[in-house]
Fold this sequence. Notes:
By secondary structure, the chain is α/β, with parallel strands linked by helices. It has helices spanning 32-37, 73-77, 122-130, 141-149, 164-170, 218-230, 251-267, 285-293, 306-312, 322-333, 351-360, 385-411, 421-432, 482-485, 500-503, 508-515, 523-542, 545-564; strands at 6-7, 58-59, 65-67, 80-84, 87-91, 98-103, 106-111, 116-120, 138-140, 187-191, 237-243, 271-278, 296-301, 340-345, 365-370, 446-449, 454-456, 470-471.
Amino acid sequence: MPTQPAVQPGVLALHVPPDAVAREVEPPFRNADEASAGVHDKAERHQDGAGHQASPGAATEGGAAAVIPRTGAETIFGSYEITLEGRVLHGNVALKEHHIVERDGDCFLLRVADMAATPVAPALARLLASWSPSPGTLVPDGLMQALRGARLVAEEASHEAPTPLKAAAAKDAEPNEDQPAPGAVASITIFLAQSCNLACSYCYGQAGTYGGSGLMSAGTARAAVDWLLANSGSASKVHVGFFGGEPLLNLPVLKEVVAYAKERSAACGKEVGFGITTNATLVDEQVAAYIAAERIEPLVSCDGPAEVHDRQRPFADGRGSHAAVTAGAARLREAFPGLPARAALCDGADPFAVRRGLEEAGFARCSLTLASPVLLEDAAAPEDPAAREAATARMLAYRRAEVAELFRAIVSRTLDSERFSEALSRLAGLATGEKRHATCGVGRGMRAVAVDGGIYPCHRFVGLEEARMGELGSYRSEGLNDYHRAAVENLPECRTCWARYFCGGGCFYENLARTGDMHRPDPLFCAEQRAVTEDLIAGWCALDEEGKAYVRERIAQADRDLDQRP
């Protein structure tokens, strides 16, 4: 007759079926010290009473596993502890969601919800990569202590963790610090011109027209500012960006709307900041002086060295524009030493060569992306899948090299926050524990206003009538909408991905263009994000405490610098 296990005093007393003992997982370690030190190099196969392998985690391309916490009996009744013939066993054990990263024989553990990564003994890592306790499993005490030491046991449910909806609402009004009510809009992008003086080969905006044409009137621009202030709620800071086409084609209205926004914002007790995305070809001394005087933060579109840039971004008459772009950028750089550039890659462009070209032109901050697919009708031919895969492979190699360079700069204490702004922003999640519930404020804390006064979730969607949210004269942003509800925890392809809080689910425009669903990211993008994130995890875990403190201080300083900008 089987011995009835005795329940330890002070723990939850649940009936344990006699045959549950037969489903006990044999311990891979003799004690917790061995588990922590990784003495056992061979993780044994663990089987249930029927001889089947117990609850493997979801395998990833690297052979590791991302384990998703269960929501069955073990979370309803809690874990329990029993003794059997002198052995302490634990039942109903649930593990926190986690991911294992392996690099050159070293293993690292990411606790997904905690945004925390630590080294882990290889033997425990191998076990976690292929096993997760099922409700009927009894876990030996040595293994239990190793799991607790890794902070993997989900013993207590958090009653304070924000729901996906609340988390998205809290981020709703970026870039503000005071977190106004859900529905508030703190940033708009005004399309001063839906026309352009360049003829970029890859333009997703239909040669800068975005399905329309012309210049925005001063009346519409003023109405856009009024709409922002009326819909900004309690936000103490608002932001107005200028976009196109080429916004400097409409310089008189730019000047008028800046003056108007400053006046109206002051009357409402709010601060206003400005930005402009420009090709810089129209930036002469007078324009540069005006942008500097008004502190309109510029972002220059430049595709790297002349041979690449002139092929991809010629003037409308076919002449190369690189010389004009770099000359205009040089004028802006006198007032903005950290002038950033954004480059689009297409037609086999090498990201390393593009980066070198941008740095040689004097740009301190460089953002490189693959050219976006086109959704506007008749704007471009469909992407070639093979070319897209090759481009993604090149970009992945670039991203990984950038991460390696970032950690070399950290170790040598020579980290330039401007130079490594993109890579550092990816590392910030591990350094601060902050999660990205969305990639940006699309449709939540930001909007875009077209030349005709139409309102869109962001500048990427302008011209797509199915994305149009309303008109300046009638549309109000009130409460939560579908964009708020599309937090990464709610996206079908993302909610079980271990890397979701690092990428936020991807750009909704890119998702729509590549998969036909703004809520479903492209698998190639996902693979790139996971690979780069694994490099970040391994690099972070290799830092000593002084190195981690150094990173946190550099991030904090970058945030302070950003807060001081108008």
